[in-house]
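User: We ran a pulldown and think these components assemble together. Before we commit to crystallization trials, I'd like a predicted model of the whole complex to look at. Sequences follow.
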Amino acid sequence: MNVSHLGQASPPLRRLSELRGPAPQRSLDARALAALAANPGCRRRALLDAAGVDKTALAQQLGRPAPFGQSPFAIRRGLQFESRLKRDGYAVLLAPLRRRLGVPEDEALSLAVPDLLPSASPAVRAERTAAALAEAAADPAGWTLLDHPLLRLDVAGSPAYLEPDAVVVHAGRCTVVEIKSFPVLDGSADPANVGAAARQAAVYVLALQEAAARLAGRPLSAGPYAVQDLPGAPELTVLLVCPKDFSSLPVAVPVDVRRELAVTRRQLSRMTRIDQLLAALPGGVTFDLARDASGTPTRPAGELAAAVAAVPAAYAPECISTCELGFHCRSQARCAGAVEQLGRGVRGELGALRTVAEALAAAEQGGGGGPEPALEEGSGLDEAAERLVYAARLRAEALAAGGVR
Amino acid sequence: MSLLSTLARLEAVRAQRAQPLATVRHRHLSERPMVLVPLAAAGESGAPLAVLLGTDREAPRLHFVPQPLNRTQRWEFLAAVAREVVPYLESFGDEVELLEGSERDPVSGEKVPVVRELCADAPQLVVPNAGGVSHLALLGRSTRFRRTVEDPDPGEYPSPTEVPLLGRWLTHLTDRAQVPGSSLLLAMTGLLSRHWATGQSNLEDQHLAARLAWHLPPAGLEPPAVGAAAAEWVESARDGDGLLLHPPAGPATDPKFDERVLAPAILRHDAAVAVRERAEAARDGAEVRRAAGLVEQAHAELARVLLAATLPTWHDVWRGLDLLRALPAAGHLPDRWEGDRWSFTMHRDRVAAGEPPQPRRDDAVTAARKLAQREREQARLEIQEALDDPLAMAERRLAGEAFAGEVVDVVPEWSAGRSPKPRPLLVVRTDDRPHADPGREAHRAHAEPAQRAEVVSAAPGEVVVRLLSGMGRRKDPEPGSVPEPGTAVVFTLFELAPRQSAPLPEPADTPWTHGGPPVAVEDAPAGGDEWE
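Assistant: Here's a predicted model for the assembly, 937 residues in total across the polymer chains.
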């Protein structure tokens, strides 16, 4: 449990821990936060993440396990790549930073790499990181590299722990370093990958901004684009480190994350406060898997599904690639005949028509009566339904003309 | 996604079966396509693992890299693939049509007649999905600059001579695949998406087997079924070992497969090779023979697991081709296929002329040309599809860009002037709601010759247009050129011939605003940094 530093467990925290049951708490990572920020309307995910429920195990017990995993080849290559970065005193990371900060190439460089107690509990690690960060920020001349620091960020009223790959501190400012395995090919990388990395890095920058504000005892500035002028404040440009072309040689590229930072801040602030979600929850709901002595979950899937169903989800097909419960929510959306199963845009196209059956019924309303669509005033059809009738007529006509049916 | 395709998806949900999005086939399908199912090694971009390929559905051929990190084995793999793919591609270069044309002589400025060759047919590669296309593009990029033993400076690790040639072809084909409506390299998921809607989202449609499960029951599912449940089964059903019953279509493999099947098999192969090397070093004949047996065994085991990982997808691609072949071909396919034949012929000529491989980055003029070509082809494709397919035209009618109806009255009128020309008014009864403001130009679809008109008035249910051309040169219109009352007509508010874009300068005349004429940059020798 890592709530000890908050003093007495407050009622919401106690309730969250009840939701989780005796299982160890899963802390939110930046990837999860970025996914959550991409779908801020999903109360189910917000609550499960806040409670630190092991969603992978939950999805497994619900009968629709998450399809995520990492190939051993990818892991091995990732480790190999990171070890390359550490050669020659992190020269690959420091050279582009020095260029950006205008530090002469020949100036001697003493790099401090403080021990951040990697095997301690999250709360201890976060405290240790904060101390190391404050110490490094106070030294104007030295260079400090925080290897896998742990940062705390409060998300919708519950703490999340984030672990950037590295943070480099120099002259009272720090820079987030994000190491990725996709290549920079001929000077450009896949925009989807870069976007995902930038969103993830923006979460780290936000956490560092909050840390710097906490340290200085000042509130976080209101404008998301404002550069903080505090010791230990993060740069709004992060360093993305990727393999160059087809080699395993690293190349570091600065990426401006101001826009992603603004989006993340806005999305996180929009997230429903956890206490409100808890208040809306019926009593007695828990996501405890009731593991027996051997660690096998014994909670019946039906009961668990009912507990999960007590929190509304905002399913979209994108969830399948980001959320462990994606398959479960999809099957629920399909059972309910929700139009979201066809994609996010479909909701907007169909207006007030929320289910497949409703939409098809609306489309056929005009189709039976003959070629003239129901256009009369006061027919009770809204604009979306009217267009649907028109589309259905055109489709039937075209299929008949094409001889398909 | 338009409302019409949303409607088709809704119908597919209800029917639990794919629904048509086209009444004809909008892409050319070759009589003799080559299907490729490529797999990539995880963790390294563009690193090949295996490919199952061939032109004979019954006889796919597997090539693979026993140790994906071993560069020599990678070159051997690529050379083997090149020996399959390049002869297939080049086999289309022999039979040519001779076309007479004229060209302006650069010196004298006079027109001189020339005879140009156009290959009678062109190759067609089919991969399972868009990921397959990008994987081939990465392979092309990583191989086309390789130096071979024939180079004056072969470098430390020369590659077999076929490899850079394969790279240039793959680069050309993947580049051409970016041109809308082209068919030299096709992704099966894209083909199916163009012609049918499923009851799931676009995102899920990227999974070839899941997509196909809306057409045909997937192999191995008992009892046979189609629709959402079948799609979910191919996406996620696993056996007792946690392995997917239907492997993904690649190029990425399932991580569980990597962990439980592939990694141990590679390890065993590596171990057998190590034993053989030790025995060879010790000059122990009996041990070398035993170790060679072990290597062979491990190699066969790898071949077995990789075949099992690609064969289901191989069958899926062919089943997809069957579905598409059952559709009648669209009328404009020969026209667009000719563009592909030109593209193929021109690349064949560039290779034969010994031109250097495509550069890493296009210069400004080439990039602008490519972009202009893609825009032009996109416009042409949209027009041709609308003319070929009532469903595609329905999209345009729904958008208010076209209207169909029946001619209810024809009012003969003539233009003023010394030699009056026919300018008849057509009253068209239509249930469509076109954005037809008076004075707007309209075009009659399927008119031969092309017929232009002008909107005179538009009221709900009725549009009046005045025909302006396509009626001959006399005072009275040619018989049959003006539709009689009762004729069904379609008018479009978009032009039926794509506009030509403004000409672009030669690369040597690139203006300074675009970086000036390209400087011949010495491409960094490709050997060194790559794939180490």
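The CA atoms of residues 416 and 423 of chain B lie 10 Å apart. That may be worth checking against your pulldown data before setting up trials.

User: Thanks, that helps.
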